Predict the structure.
Amino acid sequence: MQRSLITVVAAGCFFSAFPASSAGDAERLVAAMLGDTPLVADLQALTDEIGGRPTGSEANRRSVQWALERFRDAGVEARVEAFEMPGLWLERSARARVGGDAEFSVRIAAMPFSTATPEGGLRAAVVDGRHGLEADFERLGSVAAGAFVLIETDELEDIPGLFREYTEAAAIEERAFDAGVAGVVYMGSRPRDVLYRHNASLGLKNDRPMLVMERGSGQRVARLLRQGKELDLTVEIDLNIAGAYESHNVVGEIKGHGEPEEFVVIGAHLDSWGLGTGALDNGCNVAVVIDLARQIKRLGIMPRRTIRFVLFNGEEQGLQGSWGYAKAHAEELDRHVMASSYDIGSGRISGFFTNGRVELVEFLDRALRSVAGLGPFDNPNVPIVGTDNFDFMLEGIANLVANQESANYGPNYHAGTDTFDKVDLTQLRLNAAISAAVTWAFAEEDIDWQRHDRTAIQELIDTTDLGQQMRTFGFFDAWATGQRGRRD
Ligand SMILES: [Zn+2]
């Protein structure tokens, strides 16, 4: 395995595209990442042993300790950094039963930040909301008030489909709440009745039950309603909820020898939703980040700038850990030259989103030449919202998100099926080599960009669809009011 992988990389001809003298170190690092490292063993421990780890859960706390120990075992200086989570939300159980003209039980999952139901469950009529469009709610008229509204979904195939799901949900939920529904029931979008947990646009401000119903049962309910049958739904959602609490990011650090006060961040989020074991999202990239620190340390090579290996927490619940990092390190942000995020599973890295920093495109083109055999690479200069680069982008710091081929990411996203066996371990190792080449280049080579001020960030929002994405994820007001992101 080791030799064949190195051959693939070298097929692109290994040479440094930079004039600096660190090419030898970069080459050794890439080769080390392709070798027989504990990458896969780490991923298996995090997913099979610790398992799903929503922030606030016992498993999440265990994962923090585990990650800290992985860094320290590798001789990497590491610490936990506390930040505040706005509220605890964990599902204990969720079930539902259809009654009326047909009776059967259905499998459901509570959407994040759904409310709990009273003892014995909440029973209400269920009505056919079709796709939840304006016209669909107009057609329903007053019968939607006080009822569960069933929203039909298209089967999810890939990452673009996932973005559509998020985008549509915000508008659907707004219409449903305006219509006075008792709760929203999404027909599961995943094949084979797989359950998952995402959306619910209002976050902790949501004030009613929100759930996903397994696809087959959702379709059955829709068919019955369209035949004129009258159905009700009894939903029982039991939650562990509480107010604000403290959670922790895990930060490994390798000090720079030339510019130790300048920082390069490579990040992946440690938390997951709890239905599966968070392997594609995002255990596999957590294992890459840990292994990169481990191999740099093992080789004894020294970066020019300080590299921070950050395992963010609270990502799934509103990018809380990376926001916490930005607040805790406010004094250092002028000296953060790069923050990169890896969060799209184990599909091939096809390049990086450069998030409106066109100067990064050319730099990446050069950095990626050393792993050209793993390409082709393309670096789209568009802003991406949805993972831990976000607060760095709003702070004006150059930031990247690894762009990855969809592979099996979409169907398993936040689902019970996101488990160790879904990870493409060979591609993960190749991705690790790519991340090593890129991270090392940012830590080592001359750079010619600076942190952007609020005006420049606002211009990015105004001239791209960034503002729309921020609205979809419910982040726009926090920027507009100066609560989140760089101030003047
Ligand atoms: Zn993720």
User: Anything to note?
Assistant: The first helix runs from residue 2 to 10.
